[in-house]
Amino acid sequence: MKRYLFLLLILSVILGCPEIMTAQQTKILTGEKFNEYGLVYTLPKTAVSITVTARKQTFKAGKFYKYAKKFLGTDRVITENSEKWEILSVEATPFGIADSSTQYLMQLKPGVTTFIGVGSDGMILSINADPTPSAVPEPKYSITADPAINADAYLDYVTEDFLASQSTSRQAQMLSEALLETRETRMAIAAGTADNMPSDGKQMELMLASLSAKEKALTEAFTGVSYTQTATKSFSFTPSREGKETLFRLSDFAGFVEANDYSGAPVYVSTKILRRGQLPLDANGEEKKFPKDGVVYAIPGTASITISFQGENLWSREMDVAQFGTTFALNPALFTAKKNPSYAIFSDITGGLVEIGNTTTQQ
């Protein structure tokens, strides 16, 4: 039997089973003479696609921050260049990945019209029914672009005396005087008391905008400038055991970094097994016997998956997980009967049996 199965696997790789490509990268496999009427399929492992959105704050110190208290009367300034990252939200979606260690054979006989639906990776989706796979989340990484920030914008408004001065203190004083003059001019125009008032509303609007830009640039030379960006990245996690492990790290220097990059603080993913899959019982409460040459499916377990950062739970959910369960099988005669054969639909996330019925009543 092992030799036969090995030969069948080789044929599947070289020739492929006869198939009809359907939507969303699925296949319909049928038994034919060249593959000796045997169909190979796999069951899934349950994985989780985790999408994290974080905020990046960038701080740039003004050249004259040491003089802000003296000339502007404030000590609320940025004193050094830095970045700060914080997590805003976490979303997670379970999905299935084909488990190559769980390959099974469904043996058919000549003349049987039974077919199975599989994904492009060979994972079983259905028997005698069109396969309808779940959408698999695509990996993401994006960050909003840097805003057009010019920390030296104040240089557009300085005089030749400022540029010629070798004293930083003197330069700071000249900037503060220019800032005070700019504020007084803007307030006078807004109040309608300026000596040279604009001729119309449009000109006033332009003058006020220009003065506001100048005031902002001169102020930021003392207080510094900051801006915010948003970044989103996806991570994939496949539960394998109970416990806590590092999913990734968040660094104030580089944002999202790998789990083994100790420049960042760890973001943990914890797994707690709540229930392991159990074999079905018969009317006497005994475990049912595994059907001979049965069509294997999964009976998943249930686990709680939690994502945490710096002691705070960011996301938590209970979900069915294939690898914490067991397997059972359906009698293949259900699907090969000449009259009223059955159909079955399986979860491509857990490998569990979702639905089984008679093809004559199938909607």
Textual characterization of the structure:
The protein is of the alpha+beta class and 363 residues long. The chain folds into 2 domains: 245 residues, no CATH class; 109 residues, no CATH class. The protein has 6 helices and 15 strands. It has a 6-stranded antiparallel β-sheet. A 5-stranded antiparallel β-sheet has the order 10-9-11-12-13, with no helix packed on it. The longest helix is centred in the middle third of the chain and has 24 residues. The chain starts with a helix and ends in a 5-residue tail after the last strand. The N terminus is likely disordered.
What are the key terms here?
about 375 residues, alpha+beta, six-stranded antiparallel sheet, 6 helices, about 20% helix, disordered N terminus
List the helices and strands and how they pair.
Blueprint lengths: L1 H13 L4 E4 L3 E5 L7 E23 L7 H4 L10 E26 L7 E5 L4 E4 L13 E3 L16 H5 L3 H24 L9 H23 L1 E13 L5 E9 L3 E3 L7 E11 L19 E15 L2 E19 L2 H4 L5 E5 L6 E6 L5
Helix pairs in contact: 4-5
Summarize it.
This protein has 363 residues and is of the alpha+beta class. The protein is 20% helix and 42% strand.
In total, the number of domains comes to 2
Low-confidence stretches: 1-23
Number of helices: 6
**Class inferred from helices and paired strands:** alpha+beta
Share of helical residues: 10-25%
- Shape descriptor: elongated
Oligomer: single chain
As laid out across the biggest beta sheet, the strand order is 1-2-5-6-14-15
Q: Tell me the series of helices and strands, N- to C-terminal.
A: HEEEHEEEEHHHEEEEEEHEE
Q: How much is the radius of gyration in Å? A: 34 Å
Total strands: the figure is 15
Largest sheet: 6 strands, antiparallel
Fraction in beta strands = 35-45%
What's the average pLDDT? 88
Q: Give the termini separation.
A: 38 Å
